[in-house]
Amino acid sequence: MPGFALDVMQRLSAYDWPGNVRELENLVERLVVVASNRMVVMDDLPSHLRTTVVDLENATLDLPESGVDLRIFLTQLEERLIAQALERTGGNKNRAAELLGMNRTTLVEKLRRRNVA
Fold first, then answer.
1. Spatial separation of the C-alpha atoms in residues 58 and 50, rounded to whole Å
2. Among the listed residues 52, 106, 55, 111, the one whose alpha carbon sits nearest the alpha carbon of residue 83
3. 4 three-state secondary structure
4. CA 91 from centroid of its chain's CA atoms
5. Potential cystine with 116: which of 19, 40, 62, 111 (Cβ 3.0-4.6 Å)?
6. Contact present, 44 and 94 (Cβ < 8 Å)
7. Which residues are paired to 4 by β-bridges?
8. 20 Rama sector, left if φ>0, alpha if ψ -120 to 50, beta otherwise
9. CB neighbours of 57 closer than 8 A, spacing ≥ 6?
10. pLDDT in tens, 31-70
11. Residues near 83 by beta carbon (within 8 Å), at least 6 away in sequence
């Protein structure tokens, strides 16, 4: 087996491993089996490790002088990201939920509450 791609190694290194060494060991064994005789790439990782986390620390998002209704802002942000995920996946709720790092049932429930489903 040729090994692990650099971005995969970086993602594995950055992860907290709540299941400690056993979780890492089990994943590496599974990845080696899946990749067989090719390099392990990002698409081989489970979805929770493939998801990119937005770096809000360096984002250009400032609180307006007049303030903001955080609840409404977060709802609008969530709706926008859900719409983008559905558009990107051609309406496939399974893939959209995966892009958003949530369960399909959670996505469907959010859509139902907004009368979109």
1. 21
2. 111
3. strand
4. 17
5. 111
6. no
7. 40
8. left
9. none
10. 999 888 899 998 888 877 876 666 666 667 788 888 888 8
11. none
What values do phi and psi take at 76, rounded to 5? -65, -40
Eight-state DSSP code of residue 53: P
> What is the DSSP annotation of 70-95?
HHHHHHHHHHHHHHHHHHHTTT-HHH
Q: Which amino acid is at 88?
A: R
60-113: what fold? Arc Repressor Mutant, subunit A (1.10.10)
Question: Tokens 């290194």 label which residue?
Answer: 13
The rounded distance, in Å, linking the Cα atoms of 35 and 10 is: 18
Domain definitions of the chain by residue range: 6-50, 60-113
Do residues 15 and 27 lie in contact, with contact meaning Cβ atoms separated by under 8 Å?
Answer: no
